[in-house]
Write a structure and sequence with these properties.
The chain is an alpha+beta fold and about 250 residues long. It has 2 domains: about 180 residues, Bira Bifunctional Protein, Domain 2 (BirA Bifunctional Protein, domain 2), CATH 3.30.930.10; about 45 residues, SH3 type barrels (Roll). The protein contains 5 helices and 14 strands. Keywords: Biotin, Ligase. InterPro entries: aa-tRNA-synth_II/BPL/LPL, Biotin_CoA_COase_ligase, BPL_C, BPL_LPL_catalytic. This is biotin--[biotin carboxyl-carrier protein] ligase.
Length: about 250
Amino acid sequence: MTRLCWATPERHESLGSTNVEALTDPRPGRVVVADHQSAGQGRRGRAWSSPPGTCLAVSAVLPPVPAPVVGWLPLAAGVAVLDALEASRWPVRAVLKWPNDVLLEDGPAPGKLCGVLVQGADTGALVVGVGVNVDHDRDQLPVPTATSWRLARGGAPLPDGARELFLEDYLRRLRELHAALARGSAGPVRTAYLARCATLGRAVVVHRPDGSRVSGEAVGLDEGGALVVRGRGGAVGVHHAGDVEHLRDQ
């Protein structure tokens, strides 16, 4: 198997959407980066945007992976973001909420720090987009449940070079995890993800794409990365998509 090599990242002060730009020429190894998105995309078609200069949006084009493990790719991206944040000189302690939201649960500024969106190209390549709230003040956040890297550090702006170092660490880790998936092995992603996932073992509500809701305890992930929830009556359901709400401990 040929080792994936990243092209020099294409840097933009502003784009409508880094994923949309990456999909115009989805060559494996291409990386599109912007400090501002005016029409970013989230899961289930949600719009995502930020004030100029406050975010770091990264879209990386990857070769396809075998169908049985493709569901692990968004989870792998969340792990890569988390590892890059913790490896930085300005670390924050975050967790993962299924499927791939990066959350700060403790400290002065809890909330969602990063989201992930994976889209397929007509060529079979996969575009992995991440959007990190980097330099937002509290009144600049898109929703009250969001947070930023700056706020997690007590409001101090990130030093020069922080974005570049994060990008290097993130791309290195994403390449490692993708390599395992490309071999058909979800083991490294599963191990890393389970060690950081705050969803498992908790009472949750799954808001499904059809508008219905399922309540219960998140008890595991299946072989494809889907969330397994045991309902109050004992019935077990497997959820491949949806938004998860963590309930407070009873």
